[in-house]
Amino acid sequence: MSQTSLNLVAISIFLMTVSVLLGPFLNLSPAVPAIATFAILGIATFDSFSLQGKGGTIFLDWIAGFSSEHRDRIVHHEAGHFLVAYLLGIPVSGYTLSAWEAWKQGQPGQGGVSFDDGELASQLEVGKISAQMLDRYCTVWMAGIAAETLVFNNAEGGSDDKNKLIGVLTILGFSESVYQQKLRFHTLQAKTLLEENRSSYEALVNAMRQRTSVEDCHAKLGVRS
């Protein structure tokens, strides 16, 4: 069962427990929380086996989306990826700011910024990649964490980004002792780029918040894709 489905199960157990405790005070029939719990468990099971966890991801992301800070963190996080990719010459092909948008576009997980990474994939297939390309992509992957840290003084997202970096380093045969060094170094590199281009970064955040197209986002940065 996927992590999101497990989260739904945890939510259902929590709701059942709360309803049992508060039900007598609210004149709530025992059947109501029971039906709700079975419904959530049924959704979780269907999601796990039929939707590969995507439904649970969309549901939990939808709940989190009621928080204005959560939405603000996401757009700043993804704008960090977008701007650093642009600065390092990696083409951006699209972006999403929610799991629902990602699902509609056929993207996995909660979405984010999509890159034209065909050259990277072809080099990884043969287990060899230039040092320059590795540095560029590692910096882009860490740019979301760097952006959150720059704006909010900490980062809540970025676990998938870290996993991408570690996965590539593993394929290339790097030792585990190198992982944390690379994470810190490239996060710092990305943060420096964002600080040096702060006005462009803020303009991009505003453009992405309005769901501006990739082409128009590039225009905000002074280029045409």
Descriptive terms for the model:
mainly alpha; 11 helices; 2 strands; 73% helix; Peptidase_M41-like; protease; membrane; transmembrane helix
Question: Overall 3D geometry?
Answer: globular
Which series of helices and strands comes N to C? HHHHEHEHHHHHH
- SS-based class: mainly alpha
Give me the number of helical elements: 11
Using only C-alpha atoms, the radius of gyration works out to: 21 Å
Strand content: under 5%
Low-confidence residue ranges: 1-6
Largest sheet: spatial strand order: 1-2
The biggest beta sheet is recorded as:
2 strands, antiparallel
Q: Kindly, what is the distance between the CA atoms of the first and last residues, rounded to a whole number of angstroms?
A: 41 Å
How many beta-strand segments?
A: 2
Mean pLDDT: 78
Helix content: over 70%
